[in-house]
Structures are given as C-alpha cells and as structure tokens.
Amino acid sequence: MLDLHKLHAFVVVVEERNITHAANRLFIQQPPLTRLLKKLEQELGVQLLIRQPRGIEPTEAGTVLFKEAKLLLEHAKHIPQIVQNVSQGKTGQLNIGLTSSAGLHPLISLLLRSYREMYPAVQTKLEEAGSQKQLDWLLSEKLDVAFLRTPVSRDIGLKNIHILDEPMIMALPLGHPLAQKDKILLSDLSDENFVLYRRSSGQGLYDNILYTCYQAGFSPHIIQEAPRPTATLNLVAAGIGISIVPASMHNFWNNEIVYREFDDIVKPKAPIYLITRENENSAKVSNFIELLQKLLPTMT
Description:
Layout: H1 4-16, H2 19-26, H3 30-44, E1 49-52, E2 55-58, H4 60-87, E3 92-98, H5 106-118, E4 122-128, H6 131-139, E5 145-148, E6 158-173, E7 183-184, E8 193-197, H7 203-215, E9 221-226, H8 229-237, E10 243-246, E11 257-262, E12 269-277, H9 283-295
Parallel strand pairs: 3-4, 3-5, 7-11, 8-9
Antiparallel strand pairs: 1-2, 5-12, 6-10, 6-11, 6-12
Helix pairs in contact: 1-2, 1-3, 1-4, 5-9
C-alpha cells in the first residue's frame, strides 16, 4: 500500500526539480529524502526520477505517478471534512416515508423545503405507501423516518413522536342538504352514505373516523372505499357519498365539494406522528427532527 507521506515527498521533488529545495520545503534533511524516494521506487519496482543537467526529471512512469499522486493527495486533503460532514448529518441521503393524507399537510412541504435549504448536500428521497408497508420499511432500514396518522407499539423497535392533531372537516357534494348549515354535528350524519380512505392504506385515519362516529352514537354506513384520500374526494364530488377528511384537504374539488366544520364539543382529529427506529442515532435524522420541532410552532 502506498504511503501518502512518500507520495507527497515525491510530488514536491518533481515540482521543485531539486532535492535540496524539496528537502527545505518538506523541512527534512536531504539524505532522509533521498532514502525515502529510493524506497518508493523499490516498492513500485520502477525508476521514477532521473538526474538531468537542468535538474531532476520524472521518468515516463514518474510522470504518471505524479499526476495520480496529485489527485490522490488533493482528495486525501478533503477526507477529514468529508468524514465530519457525514458525522454531522450534512451529507448523504435521508429516506422519508409518508401516507397520502399526512403528506398533504402544509407542515410537511414546509419541513422538506426548509431541510433542503439548510442541508443542500443531503438528498431527500420520499416514499408514499400505506402504514404497514412503511413500518416494514423502517424496520428493514429502507426508511429513516415516516409520517403516519397512528402511533405504533414500541415493542417492535420503533418509537413515536407526536407532531400535531389536525382538525377534520366534513366533505359534502355540492347541493347536499347539510351544506346549508355553517357547522355540522356528527349526529347529523347517522343516515348518510360514507366514502372513506381504505383502511389498509390509512389505518389511523380510517379508525379515527369510525371511532368519532361511534362516540356520536352511530356506526357509519360505508358504501365505498378509495385507495387514496384524493380519490375519496373524487367520489364525494361525484355525489356518491359524504366523507370526513383532514382540514388540509379543503382545497380539493372546492367547486364541486362543500367543506364544513364540526360543531361538536369533541371534534374529530387526525393526528400526525413521526416514526423512527428506537435505537436510531443518525445525525441526519436528529437534524431533521430538530428542524421539525423548530417549525412546528409556526403551524399552530
């Protein structure tokens, strides 16, 4: 294995074309420098330098080594900073998972934009999938963090950070009788047909809607489920049924859908959790969570 110290000495000799000048630049005596160069030639098995009247010149092999050594030494100079950047979470890749509904909250876009501005050398890769798939990806380390609507058990090696509780609102087809009201009670929905975001894709959102309906004294009549929240609103706009959605979705189909707040004392909520591994010690993840906590007060 080549010694960087020997390569540096060789490069200086070629640049100076004089052993004495090179030794002065390297702050060593001439005899040790000469021995070092001889040892380098022995290790490589080729002659690297020849003495000419105008000074020391590299051989053809020496010229090739000079060019390669310059590149290697330049790269080696930056290695400490590269290592420090990695240890501080300033470079690399952060893999982020999110469900369709959680990804629509404005906090997520603000966080991703701010993180990119603060850590431009970190590549962020987004993966959208259902809750269970994201948990599997976290455990297999395909994901570093994930935004879900439901907490997870710590028994499986993951931990929750509760981010916020987003209000949920009523989505009604244009012309629906309940659209005449400014606010709606959950009990007003007991005879309505519901279209919901499929449970296998968004377990937390689905379960929260059912729970709030049960608390209001009825079980919702679900006539159709959709694979994505936006697809759910397509069904509402088509007049197939009504739905309960996170407030961050209030701009979708707003010419075909009427959105109303709830007037109940206990209003339905759609929480967002950040899920990470229990033993996660990555600086990238720590930086991401720290930035999230700084931005959170601006969204409440």
